[in-house]
Sequence to fold (154 residues):
Amino acid sequence: MSELTTVELLWLAKRIENRIRFGKPAAEKIIDRQRRVLSFAPGNIFAFVRWTSNDFGTVLSRLDILRAVAPGQRYSTVPWVSPGGESLLRLSGWPKVERALQLIDAVEALGINPAEAAPEYWHHVHNRLSVNETPRTYTRARHQAWLQRRRVTL
Fold:
């Protein structure tokens, strides 16, 4: 078993779009014009967006924020992700996915890579969006606290 988590990306015009919204892949393999495979090292956080439609409109809108796992660690299975990942955020339905994408944009607007944001923040977003509350935005102060906490625990 490889130590990397792989994500298969597919794009079929007006039908299927699987893409990475953020994350730092360790490797990339281009299969053809519509397909690529990205690999992430254990511990790396990435956002995987899936969208599918048919002749009648959108069938699926999904956002998963995952942490790549090391061999032997527990993980959640996600289509197109092998073996899977630690689920930090899992959303279905365009209104929730759209709101989470806006929050990702807000983190980036602070000059912070969303993959480096505190993992607990993504759990918080999930809990608030589930009950239709407005989640607190990520702040530089919260990010600095996370970086200090991470430094102490390493």
Q: What stands out?
A: The CA atoms of residues 29 and 37 lie 5 Å apart. The chain is about 25% helix and 40% strand. Helices lie at 94-109, 119-130, 140-153. The mean pLDDT is 91.
